[in-house]
Model the fold of this input.
Amino acid sequence: MWSRARLLLLLPTVVAASIRAQRLYRRLPLDEACRALADVRPLPTLLRDPVGYLRLVNRLLRVLPPRDLRPCLKRSLLLLDLWSRCGLAPSFHLGVRPPVDRSSGGHAWVTVENRPDLSLADAGYAEAFVWGGLQP
Done:
């Protein structure tokens, strides 16, 4: 369904989003970084492919900056930017798992209202922080 040529067409936007996410995440508090990542100009119609961006981000996640973030946090920040550029209003979530045997964990994910094909799973984590997307 997604040809290599199509994914190559989307690649520069993904790289730009990853560099932007790295810069904003390092300089701003998380809520302000989320707002800045979502407050973007829409892409031309030809480049509005939220499922293609999800596939490409998942494929390239290990090599994209910022490299020192957990994969779920990096993926969520990138998709917040990219899906906002596609004209969607994604929400960014951070969750925690209650401690079990002295271990706990965190998880980040994004959701898009009325788009279950794009909403990433919470994996059983209780929400601790939600940033609601800007309306297109």
Observations:
- The radius of gyration is 15 Å.
- Residues 4-131 form one domain.
- The beta strands are 91-100, 103-111, 126-131.
